[in-house]
Amino acid sequence: MNNENSAAAKARARPKYLNLFKIRLPAPGVLSIFHRISGVLLIYALPFALWFLQRSVADAEGYDYTLRVFGGDGNPLAKLLAWGVAWALFHHLCAGARFLLLDFHIGVGLEAARFSAFAAFAVSILMTVVFGVWLW
Asked: What range defines the domain where residue 32 resides?
């Protein structure tokens, strides 16, 4: 009887909702969330990227338009969006490679998983910066 009362009291004491801003996730959890966000960004950016690609190879006018948008003195907002899409691509690539290694049971220990999560973040940011410098 006493165990039933304490179990019921614990069940009532639990929060009714999860405040995601108060939960402190470990690095692999944050990486997983950003992996999902980057995947969604890539899905939404794909039609625009394909449209610009199609337009750039269709004729000389389309190539000139794409060059004006993304070229040397192009639109800074377009370059910033391209930088964001590049981050999504590089992050999704690095995190996906990490998850593939985890599927093969490589790096599943606590320290190895934490290190590979930070490494995926660092490599994707480095790749994005290099691409951004090249783009700008």
From this structure: 26-44+75-135
| CB distance 135 to 82 below 8 Å | yes
pLDDT in tens, 4-51: 667 666 666 766 777 778 888 899 999 999 999 999 999 999 999 999
Q: How many angstroms separate the CA atoms of 38 and 91, rounded?
A: 7
Instruction: Give dist(CA 124, CA 114) in Å, integer.
Output: 16
Cα-Cα end-to-end distance for the chain:
70
Does residue 85 lie within any of the structural domains? yes
3-state secondary structure of 105: coil
Question: What pTM was estimated for this model as a whole?
Answer: 0.80
Q: Does residue 33 form part of some domain?
A: yes
Flag whether 9 is in a domain: no
- Report the C-alpha gap between 62 and 75 in whole angstroms: 16
Residue 57 lies in a domain: no
Number of domains in the chain: 1
